[in-house]
């Protein structure tokens, strides 16, 4: 039996993002984002309830400051006490999990969406999805970009403006483009 485009997307196989089922899900997410982003002046409790309407999981005390943008929302999992500052973007075509106590600065971008490297495959309109996993008590500085398929270990620090192209070990500090591990500082 052939897989749906959504099933392909979630399993990491090449998929067609223009599929009507996927387009309908993205349209629903857009309508939700309009509501959520208009709730900036609402209490954290009201905003958390809105998050629980759309996101796959929202732990107690999790906060996302609007504006916030995502593809679907339903593939995002936030642990307890997670904080995302203003203007974050999560392209959640695959699962994006963020562990408890993690703090994410403004304008951080997390991409699970990827494209084929082969020009012919890319020209055909196929896309790929690779999950992103961010551990507990991670700090990601403002303007950082986390690329598809990356895992960031517990307690890691990602410097502001860094581009994370590969996995980050637990407890490590990475900076730069591409992000590289730096020695610990006192």
UniProtKB/TrEMBL annotation:
Q: Does the keyword Acyltransferase apply?
A: yes
How is this protein named in the record?
A: Sugar O-acetyltransferase
The yes or no answer to whether the keyword Manganese is present is no
**This protein's superkingdom?**
Bacteria
Write down the SUPFAM superfamilies for this protein, in alphabetical order: Trimeric LpxA-like enzymes (SSF51161)
Lineage of origin: Bacteria, Pseudomonadati, Pseudomonadota, Gammaproteobacteria, Lysobacterales
The family assignment reads: Belongs to the transferase hexapeptide repeat family.
So what EC number does this one have? Answer: 2.3.1.-
Which Pfam families does the entry mention?
A: Hexapep (PF00132), Mac (PF12464)
Single GO MF annotation: acyltransferase activity
Keywords on record: Acyltransferase, Repeat, Transferase
Q: Which stretches are transmembrane?
A: none
Q: Where is the Maltose/galactoside acetyltransferase domain?
A: 6-60
